[in-house]
Structures are given as C-alpha cells and as structure tokens.
Amino acid sequence: MTRVIGLTGGIATGKSTVSEYLTSVGYEIIDADKITHQVQSKGSKGLEAIAAFFGKDIIKDDGELNRQKLGSIVFNDKSKLIELTRIIDPYIRSEVIRRIDESKNDVVILDAPTLFENGYHFMCDDIISVVCDGNEQEKRLMERDSLSKEEADSRIKSQWPLKIKAELSTYVIDSNGSIMQTRNQVVKLFNNID
C-alpha cells in the first residue's frame, strides 16, 4: 500500500522549493495546484462550472480562465473563495484519489497548499508543513507576484495561519534560512522517514 505524505504550507513559504527538491531525488509528487490548473483548463467541465457561477467574462477570449480576474474576486471576498472551492474541489479530489490509487511507489507526496482547508489531510499518513516568518512570507509573495502589501496580506489571510498548520502536522520545515538550509532539513527528515 502506498504511503501518502502531505506537503503543505502557506503561500510563498518555500513549499515549492521543498517539492522541487523531492522531485529531483525521485519522489512521486501529486501537485494539487497543477491538478487545479488542469481541471480549470480550456473546455473543461471545471471551467464551465466556474463560469456558470462567476459569469462568462471570467473566461478570456482564447477560452482560458482569467486567473488574475478570478483571483481579484475570490481573494477579496471570502464567501466567493468558499464558493469557488465548493465548485472545483470535487474535480480536484477525484483526480488526487485516482493518482494515489494508481501509484506504484511506496511513498507519494501530496503537495497541496490548502491541504487542511480542503480536508486532504485525511488522505495522508504523515504531514509536513513548510513555514517561515510572517514578514518573510509577505516579502516573498510581494516580490514573486508583484503584489502590493494589501494584496499579499489578503492572499495570506485567505489561508489558515501557519502556526495552526504546523501544530497539526507530523513534521515542520522552517524555510526562513537559505535554500540549502531548507534542503538540508528535508534530507534529514526523509532519512528518518524512509
């Protein structure tokens, strides 16, 4: 039976750096963000469902989802974010379950920033949270996505606090330091997990 290790953290905490490293050393990653993009792609049932609720103008002229427009709606209105999750989660969940069931590996990593928020933690045997200082998180997000302080804060506040995620996790990786320091924590952790 495949062991599922959940990998989570807040936006811009370094979770992707950890995920990329685990990929590079051969772990199978089920990336919930990539699945989300897939189930919201041009012509998909997920995109049709989103447009039915948020309006056809959420779709660009080329038929793709206008992610920037949708983001500005859902990250400024919690009820709209809840509704988006309600609409799209069944598509994502079904694909995550399919990939876990079809995995031939002893260990699979379920990479999901909203692992707890969407209840995916119930699929996991262990959970790793990647955390960093709140000011560092805000700074990284502003730089990465060219956001104002207010926009970054709004996106950060749309997710569970890092402290709560850490408390509910089996393991915690502190990404405040360099990428190499973060990787060293991952190596040490996975030497103990395997």
Automatic annotation (TrEMBL):
It catalyses: 3'-dephospho-CoA + ATP = ADP + CoA + H(+). CDD domains: DPCK. GO terms for molecular function: dephospho-CoA kinase activity. It is found in: Cytoplasm. Its EC number is 2.7.1.24. Keywords: ATP-binding, Coenzyme A biosynthesis, Cytoplasm, Kinase, Nucleotide-binding, Transferase. InterPro entries: Depp_CoAkinase (IPR001977), P-loop_NTPase (IPR027417). The keyword Nucleotidyltransferase does not apply. It comes from the Bacteria. The keyword Cytoplasm applies. Pathway: Cofactor biosynthesis; coenzyme A biosynthesis; CoA from (R)-pantothenate: step 5/5. ATP binds at A12, T13, G14, K15, S16, T17. Its main location: cytoplasm. Belongs to the CoaE family. Catalyzes the phosphorylation of the 3'-hydroxyl group of dephosphocoenzyme A to form coenzyme A. NCBIfam families: dephospho-CoA kinase. This is Dephospho-CoA kinase. It comes from Apilactobacillus nanyangensis.
